[in-house]
Specification:
This protein has about 550 residues and is an alpha/beta fold. It is built from 16 helices and 25 strands. The longest helix is centred in the first third of the chain and has 27 residues.
């Protein structure tokens, strides 16, 4: 859909809501008409002609209306009139009629968009005789490949596309740290896969094996048993699983960070430790409960320890018996400095910022064993703790090992050598960089690898040659808590508050749908005003230890 068409589509959808609000509130006609057109254009740019459910259209429209009230009625309108904007309760109450009108306008416009999109003709289902492209994995790479193929099918590609995943949502893993630290709601970091597919099929199940010779994938689909799914081209985008290196006790007692459940479990563990420490009479056990260790000093580990530090210190005043006590936070990292992905200067900047808050470092060290009461480092040091978060290692998904010995080395086109019709990308594959080395396993690379492999498969189906994958990266950013961050963008080093705002802006823009962007933006906005939520997800959450993690 062209940009102009999307804008016109949104303006048309905004007309009913604008007319109803104008009849109720009787605002100045010309400014309100202009406001309606602008907000309608925003709706059109955000949604275009995408189909949504009634509930989603209503709730997202309502949220946009509320944001419009805050942005225009409370902020921009007073500023344009030469007055200082104010967000006090008294001002909000005085502008309550405009709030009702904005919410009504947004909800009606959202429903109007839904009604207009339902009038579009549905694309006919692809014929079984067409070449079958199967994508295994619902992460950034797999969903990116499925959506690009879905778009190409809509433009005439003669193929049937099926995405297979054991989760029916795309998880935005960079924000799992926000879930663990109570700055983002768990449901807001995932988006339904089906909602983004119009011409492709989705199969909710787990691929248990692949026969590359007969070109069949075998899928465990619950009560349906094992299904055989034949394919002409298969894309492996199954990612990686935590790797505990067979260290004694680590698999049983460490908290990985790969899923929403992992992040929620770690959050409950930390908050549960505060609850127990508030009741604990033994000072030694109290200190053990208030010691939090993160293994791994890369992006994930550094962001995690910073956010957990902020979480604990933001809510510590709610626990009277813990006043005067100092929770202890440690990073255990095998390298000689934090954040080896960044320049030494920025790595030292991050270490200085975290160390200034009292976070401790064990550099050049590794966890060698863990128990329910402590961890031991390879240096022999024992650290009493009941919370060990693990970001220190991943390994390719076990499905890869059924095809060939991991890591799965592929060509620059992402084709698996010697296995026609088989492609691989993301964390489960080693994709050579034409500039030397291999492409890193980051989200920004996986998204582009998914689009590239889709275009390569389309090229092969059309009798053309696939092209090598090229991408140099856009930059890297890491949050350091306390509204600071560090990173390198466009070859320039950034740090401090500006880097933190840039970090949040980039992550917000990369969320998969407009609805999720608005929900996360609302979470972050509320986090600036209200204290973090300390409600546990269940009674069993207090000091819950996960069962042994089954890799794969």
């Amino acid at each position: 859909m062209t940009l102009l068409r999307r804008i016109l589509f949104g303006i048309i959808a905004a007309l009913p809501g604008g007319a109803i609000v104008a009849a109720v509130n009787d605002p100045p006609w010309l400014p309100w008409a202009a406001h309606t057109a602008v907000l309608g254009a925003v709706f059109g740019l955000l949604f275009g002609e995408r189909r949504q459910s009634n509930g989603s259209a209503f709730s997202v429209g309502l949220l946009i209306g509320l944001l419009d009230w805050v942005t225009w009625t409370l902020t921009l309108a007073p500023a344009l009139e030469g007055r200082t904007p104010s967000w006090t309760i008294a001002v909000a109450v005085s502008r309550f009629p405009e709030l009702v009108g904005a919410a009504l306008f947004g909800a009606i416009t959202g429903l109007a968009l839904h009604a207009l999109s339902s009038l579009r003709p549905t694309a006919p289902a692809p014929a079984r005789a067409k070449p079958h492209v199967v994508i295994v994995g619902g992460g950034f790479g797999g969903v990116g490949a499925a959506r690009e193929l879905d778009r190409l099918v809509g433009r005439g590609l003669d193929a049937h596309v099926t995405l297979i995943s054991d989760s029916n949502f795309l998880l935005f893993t960079p924000l799992l740290v926000g879930v663990a630290s109570s700055t983002v709601e768990a449901r807001h970091v995932s988006a339904p896969v089906r909602a983004g597919l119009e011409n492709a099929s989705f199969l909710h199940g787990r691929v248990v094996s692949v026969d590359a010779q007969t070109r069949n994938a075998y899928v465990s689909a619950g009560k349906e048993g094992t299904l055989r799914v034949p394919y002409d081209h298969l894309v492996l985008a199954v990612g990686a699983v935590p790797h505990f290196f067979d260290l004694p006790g680590v698999g049983e007692h460490a908290f990985p960070m790969k899923s929403v459940e992992d992040a929620t479990r770690l959050r409950d563990q930390v908050l549960g430790a505060l609850e127990r420490a508030d009741l604990e009479p033994d000072p030694a056990e109290q200190a053990r409960l208030l010691t939090f260790v993160v293994a791994g000093g890369g992006f994930a580990g550094t962001e995690l320890v910073a956010e957990l530090f902020d979480l604990v210190h933001d809510v510590l005043h709610l626990y009277p018996r813990l006043h005067g006590l100092r929770p202890r936070f440690l990073i255990v990292h095998a390298g000689e400095r934090l954040l080896p992905e960044l320049s030494p200067k920025l790595g030292l900047y991050a270490q200085r910022k975290l160390g200034g808050r009292g976070i401790e470092f064990r550099l050049g060290a590794r966890v060698s064993r863990a128990s329910a009461e402590d961890i031991t480092l390879n240096s022999g040091e024992t650290i009493p703790t009941r919370t060990l978060a693990w970001t220190a290692g991943n390994r390719p998904h076990p499905l890869v090992g059924q095809i060939m010995q991991p890591p799965l080395a592929v060509e620059a086109t992402m084709q698996v050598p010697g296995m026609p019709g088989l492609w691989a990308l993301g964390d489960c594959a080693r994709i050579p960089d034409l500039g030397g080395g291999f492409h890193p396993p980051t989200a920004q690379h996986a998204i582009r690898e998914g689009k590239a492999v889709a275009k390569n498969i389309a090229a092969v189906l059309r009798g053309r040659r696939p092209v090598p994958f090229r991408f140099g990266g856009l930059g890297v950013l890491v949050s350091l808590g306390h509204r600071t961050a560090a990173g390198e963008v466009g070859g320039r080093q950034v740090s401090g508050l500006f880097a933190w705002i840039l970090w949040r802006s980039v992550y917000l823009s990369k969320l998969p749908t407009a609805e999720k962007r608005l929900r996360v933006l609302a979470d972050w906005t509320l986090d600036l005003v209200f204290p973090r939520d300390i409600a546990l997800s269940g009674a069993s959450a207090v000091l819950h230890r996960p069962d042994r993690f089954v890799e794969g």
